[in-house]
Amino acid sequence: MNITIPDDYQDCVRYLQCFDKLKHHAVQVFNDSGKDVSELAARFSTAHALVLMRERTVISAALLERLPRLRLISQAGRAGSHIDLEACTRLGVAVTETQGDGTPTAELTWALILASRRHLVSEANRLRDGLWQGQLGQRLQGQTLGIWGYGRIGQQVARYGQAFHMRVLVWGSATSRSRASAHGFEAAPSQEAFFAQCDVLSLHLKLTPQTQGVITQRDLGLMKPTALLVNTSRAELIEAGALERALRHGRPGFAAVDVYEDEPVQGARHPLLSLPNVLGTPHIGFVERETYERYYGDAFDNLLRYARGDYSPVMNPAVLLHDRQISLVS
Predict the structure, then answer these.
(1) What are phi and psi of 203, to 5 degrees?
(2) Which residues have a Cβ under 8 Å from the Cβ of 37 and sit 6 or more positions away?
């Protein structure tokens, strides 16, 4: 089977232990990210299977129509809106997905909170530049940690806040608020109170049509001038341009972000990266060795099951009736 793996930014896939699972197949790896449909069609032209890492490559109907040899997309992570699942089914391309535990993203969230509150990056850079102390930091103990979205990651971050003796305040759906209360955390009485009371506010919502742009300029304007907004979830949760405007107006006073609307961001071409009150990282929430071994390992396992005729991992089973799925191209 011809297998193509795009978007291996760190050129690390070939050196993972799980890569040995593909030793009997022809594997092509790309280390950069393509956007143009014609370019992607050329790259993927010989592939019987694609192994995708998260949402880095958009698989549109226009692209799929130019890939007649493709039989399978094995997604590392969730197969979200970046894959046109209806077009995959219509054109005979099976799709599988995997699931992570969210721990690396929760850990990075906490690292960003600590780094921002204590100005770690700027202070370390001052020292390297021959200078000494420059700013006062802010302790976390006694502060209010707000968590919007009390799912798998939000729950972990809440426990971190509890360990640091913070007041934890949760907002989200009625189910999230009820679950948080059952776990001993406080649910905010309203969205307005949530934004107004938080010293650190961390977003842990899934991006859906309902949550896109759910955080508005008005919401951000309710935050304290000393508050920190942290986003390791998705940039599109915030109304376009609202965070930049809010930071320039001083409410909130700080932001730490790991996600951007159009990735990868290169040449520092993002307005948030020009602001001195923003700590930015290049979407590394899930980028750590154990997670990669799990994500890619499970994606490779799904691919190999499919190649053996075990279609149980396929998330669009109607595709199996398509002529293209009768047999694999050898």
Answers:
(1) -95, 130
(2) 60, 62, 63, 66
Write down the CATH superfamily of domain 103-280.
NAD(P)-binding Rossmann-like Domain (3.40.50.720)
Quote the pTM value: 0.93
Candidates 48, 179, 204, 283; catalytic one: 283
Residue 263, pLDDT above cutoff 60: yes
- Assess whether 48 carries a catalytic annotation: no
- Active site includes 24? no
Q: Which of 54, 71, 204, 234 is catalytic?
A: 234
Helix (H, G, I), strand (E, B) or coil at 324: helix
Per-residue pLDDT of 38-91, as tens digits, reads 999 999 999 999 999 999 999 999 999 999 999 999 999 999 899 999 999 999
CATH 3.40.50.720 fits 2-100+288-325, yes or no: yes
| Residue type present at position 46 | T
Fold equal for 2-100+288-325 and 103-280: yes
User: Does the annotation mark 283 as catalytic?
Assistant: yes
For the chain, domain boundaries: 2-100+288-325, 103-280
Read off the tokens for 283: 């979407």
Measure the CA–CA gap between 117 and 44, rounded to whole angstroms. Answer: 44
Instruction: Please enumerate in sequence order all residues whose Cβ is within 8 A of that of 159, keeping only pairs 6 or more positions apart, or say none.
Output: none
